[in-house]
C-alpha cells in the first residue's frame, strides 16, 4: 500500500504541476524538503487506501487533506496549498492586501507573439511563467524580486525585519574615492559601497542587472540624475579617482567590446546602438566627460554611458564595487541604499555592507552608504484619525512591523500617545506622518475599514474664476476668434529674448532639470505660445484670429510655494495688414462687459506704453481701477521675424483675475 501510495503521489504531483501555476516565495528550507513531503504524501495515500478499505469516511477525508488533493466545488478548484506556496488567485489576493497589483501572468512566448502580432506559437522564448506586478512609483525597494519576496514574507509574518549593518573596518583600511574639482562641470557627486562575499547564480545576476535598469528608468530619470556602475572589485585596485577630462584624453575598452576607444569616438560609435544612444546627449556637448579610474589608471566607467570591460561582473564575481555618479546627491544616496540593501542578503555576512570614503578636493569627506534608520515620532491620533478606526498602540505597532517599520510606544511631555517609528534605509518613501498612516491602513486592510457617512454636506460648484473665464471665452469666441490650448512650459529663449525681453531673474520659474530645451521655464506670458501656434498654422487663410485663456506663473515670495498662478486672456490677429483696430475693438468689448452698468466709464482705460515686444507708438496699456492689467498693440517686426511669421500681427494680453 505504501509503494502504491508513493506512485500515486508522484503521478498527482506531476499532474498538479501541469495544471496549477504556483508562486514560490524564497525560503530557507533544505533541499531535502521535497523528499520529506513526498514521503508524507505517500503515507497519506496509504492512510487513504487503508481507511477506504475499512469504510472510515472521516479518516479518508483527513487523508485527502493531508495529501493535498484538489477538491472541486461548483466547477471551481479549491487548492489546499503547502506552506510558502500560493495558487495564482491566492497570490493575487496577497498582492492586493499588500497594496500592489498582479497585473498579468504570461510567458515569454506569449509576450513575443503579442509584440509581433503572431497567431501561431513563437519559436523563440520559453514557457516559464512571468508575473507582471505593478508597484508604487516611489517604492524602489519593490523593483526587484528580492525586494518583493522579502516584503511579502515580512508582511505575512514569516520573516523578521532585517537589520542592515556597516562593516566595522578601520579608516586606514577603508577604500577611498577621490573627487577632482573638474567634475563640478558635469556630474559633481559620487557615492560608493562594496558588497563582499557575494554568491551569484544566473537568476541572482539577472535580477541584479534588472534592478539597475529599473532604477535608471525610474528615480535616475534615464541616467540624467544618477548613473549606476557595478564592478568586480578583485579586478581593480584602490584608491579610486573620479575625474572630468576632455574626451580626447580618455581611452579604454568598453563593456562587451574587444578594442579600445577614445571617449569621443566611443560616443560616435554608440549613436547606432539602440539602447545606449538615448543617453549620449547627457554628456556629448560637454567639454569634459566624467570618468572613474583605479590606482592603476584602469577605467571603471564613463558615466552615464558605459562601464569598462576590465572590471565587468560575471557569475564568478565575489566582491562587487558599486559607484553612483549624480547631479542630485539625495537621489544618489537612495539609489545606492536600494542596491546594497536588496543584494546584501547574498553576501557572506548577510545584510552587511562595506563602506567607502569619498574625499572631495576641498578636503571634505563623507562615508557611504548611510544605512542609519530615521526616527519619527507620530501621534496615535494622526494615524487612526484619518483612517477612521479606533486602535491602541499595541494594535498599531504590529501593523507597522508588517510594513517593515519598527515601532514602539512613546509618551510625550503632555502625556499624549506617541508611536516612535524607525524608518529603515529601504523605505525612502516614508517622509511624513501621513506615509506612516498609509502603511497602517494597508496593513489593517482597506476592506476592513468601516464605512461611514460624511459628517457634513457640501454642494460642489465651479470656482468664480473658472466661471468668469468661461464667460470671457464665450465673448471672445463670439467676436470670431478660435480658441487654442498650448503648453504652460516653454524655452527660456521663447519667453525672453525672442520677445525682446530681459530676464532679471526675479520673475520666471526655471525648471531645474528640463527634459528638453523646449521646456525650460514656466511661461510668464501667453504671447510666445500664440506666436508659436501661428507659426505652425501660417498656411491657413487670412485673417487668422486665435485666443487663449490660461495661466502664467511668476515668482512671488508672498506665497508659501514661492510662486503664483495668474489667469490671463490673450488674443492674436494676423492679416496682410496689422489689424490694430480689430484688437482695439476686442479690448473695448471686453472692458465694456466687465464694467457694472451703473458705474460710469469715466476716463479712458488706455494709456500709451513702451513694451519692447510691441511696435513703438503703436501700443497701449490697459488700466482698470487705477491699475495696469494688460497691454495691446502691433507686434514688433523683429519679434515676428524670430518666430518666422511674415505677416503683421496685433496682440492683446489681459489679466482677467484683476477684472473679477
From TrEMBL:
NCBIfam families: pheT_arch (TIGR00471). Its cofactor is Mg(2+). GO terms for cellular component: phenylalanine-tRNA ligase complex. One of its GO terms (molecular function) is RNA binding. InterPro entries: aa-tRNA-synth_II/BPL/LPL (IPR045864), B3/B4_tRNA-bd (IPR005146), DNA-bd_dom_put_sf (IPR009061), Phe-tRNA-ligase_IIc_bsu (IPR045060), Phe-tRNA-synth_IIc_bsu_arc_euk (IPR004531), Phe-tRNA_synthase-like_B3/B4 (IPR020825), PheRS_beta_core (IPR041616), PhetRS_B1 (IPR040659). The chain crosses the membrane at residues 33-52, 59-80. Keywords: Aminoacyl-tRNA synthetase, ATP-binding, Cytoplasm, Ligase, Magnesium, Membrane, Metal-binding, Nucleotide-binding, Protein biosynthesis, Transmembrane, Transmembrane helix. Tetramer of two alpha and two beta subunits. Gene3D superfamilies: 3.30.56.10, Bira Bifunctional Protein, Domain 2, Phenylalanyl-trna Synthetase, Chain B, domain 3. It comes from Ananas comosus var. bracteatus. It catalyses: tRNA(Phe) + L-phenylalanine + ATP = L-phenylalanyl-tRNA(Phe) + AMP + diphosphate + H(+). It is an enzyme of class 6 (ligase). The keyword Magnesium applies. GO terms for biological process: phenylalanyl-tRNA aminoacylation. Coiled coil: none annotated. Belongs to the phenylalanyl-tRNA synthetase beta subunit family. Type 2 subfamily. SMART domains: B3_4, B5. It is found in: Cytoplasm. This is phenylalanine--tRNA ligase. Its EC number is 6.1.1.20. It holds the Pfam family B5. Residues 371-451 form the B5 domain.
Amino acid at each position: 500500500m505504501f509503494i502504491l501510495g508513493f506512485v500515486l503521489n508522484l503521478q498527482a504531483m506531476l499532474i498538479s504541476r501541469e495544471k496549477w501555476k504556483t508562486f514560490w516565495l524564497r525560503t530557507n528550507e533544505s533541499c531535502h524538503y521535497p523528499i520529506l513531503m513526498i514521503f508524507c504524501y505517500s503515507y497519506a495515500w496509504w492512510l487513504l487506501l487503508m481507511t477506504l478499505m475499512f469504510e472510515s469516511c472521516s479518516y479518508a477525508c483527513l487523508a485527502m487533506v493531508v495529501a493535498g488533493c484538489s477538491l472541486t466545488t461548483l466547477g471551481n478548484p479549491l487548492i489546499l496549498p503547502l506552506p510558502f506556496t500560493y495558487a495564482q488567485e491566492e497570490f493575487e489576493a496577497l498582492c492586493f492586501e499588500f497594496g500592489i497589483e498582479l497585473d498579468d501572468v504570461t510567458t515569454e512566448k506569449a509576450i513575443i507573439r503579442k509584440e509581433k502580432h503572431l497567431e501561431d506559437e513563437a519559436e523563440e522564448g520559453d514557457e516559464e511563467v512571468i508575473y507582471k506586478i505593478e508597484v508604487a512609483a516611489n517604492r524602489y525597494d519593490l523593483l526587484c524580486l528580492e525586494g518583493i519576496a522579502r516584503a511579502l514574507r515580512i508582511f505575512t509574518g514569516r520573516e523578521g525585519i532585517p537589520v542592515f549593518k556597516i562593516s566595522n573596518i578601520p579608516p586606514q583600511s577603508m577604500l577611498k574615492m577621490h573627487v577632482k574639482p573638474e567634475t563640478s562641470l558635469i556630474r559633481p557627486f559620487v557615492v560608493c559601497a562594496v558588497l563582499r562575499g557575494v554568491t551569484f547564480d544566473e537568476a541572482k545576476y539577472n535580477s541584479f542587472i534588472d534592478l539597475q535598469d529599473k532604477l535608471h528608468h525610474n528615480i535616475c530619470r534615464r541616467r540624467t540624475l544618477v548613473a549606476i556602475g557595478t564592478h568586480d572589485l578583485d579586478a581593480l585596485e584602490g584608491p579610486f579617482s573620479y575625474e572630468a577630462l576632455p574626451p580626447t584624453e580618455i581611452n579604454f575598452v568598453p563593456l562587451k567590446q574587444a578594442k579600445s576607444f577614445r571617449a569621443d569616438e566611443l560616443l560616435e560609435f554608440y549613436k547606432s546602438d539602440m539602447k545606449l544612444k538615448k543617453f549620449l546627449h547627457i554628456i556629448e556637448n560637454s567639454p569634459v566627460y566624467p570618468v572613474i579610474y583605479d590606482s592603476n589608471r584602469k577605467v571603471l566607467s564613463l558615466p552615464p554611458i558605459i562601464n569598462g570591460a576590465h572590471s565587468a561582473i560575471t557569475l564568478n564575481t565575489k566582491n562587487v564595487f558599486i559607484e553612483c555618479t549624480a547631479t542630485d546627491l539625495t537621489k544618489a544616496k537612495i539609489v545606492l541604499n536600494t542596491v546594497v540593501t536588496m543584494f546584501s542578503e547574498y553576501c557572506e555576512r548577510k545584510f552587511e555592507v562595506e563602506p567607502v570614503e569619498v574625499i572631495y578636493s576641498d578636503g571634505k569627506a563623507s562615508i557611504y552608504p548611510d544605512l542609519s534608520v530615521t526616527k519619527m515620532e507620530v501621534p496615535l491620533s494622526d494615524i487612526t484619525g484619518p483612517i477612521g478606526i479606533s486602535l491602541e498602540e499595541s494594535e498599531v505597532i504590529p501593523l507597522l512591523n508588517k510594513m517593515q517599520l519598527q515601532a514602539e510606544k512613546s509618551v510625550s511631555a503632555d502625556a499624549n500617545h506617541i508611536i516612535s517609528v524607525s524608518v529603515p534605509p529601504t523605505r525612502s518613501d516614508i517622509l511624513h506622518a501621513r506615509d506612516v498612516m498609509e502603511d497602517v491602513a494597508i496593513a489593517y486592510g482597506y476592506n476592513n475599514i468601516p464605512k461611514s457617512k460624511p459628517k457634513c454636506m457640501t454642494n460642489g460648484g465651479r470656482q468664480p474664476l473658472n466661471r468668469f473665464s468661461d464667460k470671457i471665452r464665450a465673448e471672445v469666441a463670439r467676436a470670431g476668434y478660435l480658441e487654442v490650448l498650448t503648453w504652460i512650459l516653454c524655452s527660456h529663449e521663447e519667453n525672453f529674448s525672442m520677445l525682446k525681453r530681459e530676464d532679471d531673474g526675479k520673475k520666471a520659474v526655471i525648471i531645474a532639470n528640463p527634459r528638453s530645451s523646449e521646456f525650460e521655464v514656466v511661461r510668464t506670458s501667453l504671447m510666445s505660445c500664440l506666436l508659436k501656434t501661428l507659426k505652425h498654422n501660417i498656411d491657413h487663410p487670412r485673417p487668422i484670429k486665435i485666443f487663449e485663456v490660461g495661466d502664467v506663473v511668476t515668482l512671488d515670495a508672498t506665497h508659501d510655494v514661492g510662486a503664483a498662478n495668474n489667469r490671463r486672456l490673450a488674443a492674436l490677429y494676423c492679416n496682410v495688414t496689422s489689424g490694430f483696430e480689430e484688437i482695439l475693438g476686442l479690448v473695448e468689448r471686453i472692458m465694456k462687459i466687465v464694467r457694472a452698468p451703473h458705474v460710469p466709464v469715466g476716463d479712458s482705460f488706455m494709456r500709451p506704453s513702451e513694451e519692447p515686444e510691441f511696435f513703438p507708438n503703436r501700443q497701449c496699456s490697459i488700466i482698470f481701477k487705477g491699475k495696469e492689467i494688460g497691454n495691446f498693440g502691433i507686434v514688433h517686426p523683429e519679434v515676428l521675424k524670430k518666430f518666422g511669421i511674415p505677416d503683421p500681427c496685433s496682440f492683446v494680453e489681459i489679466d482677467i483675475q484683476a477684472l473679477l
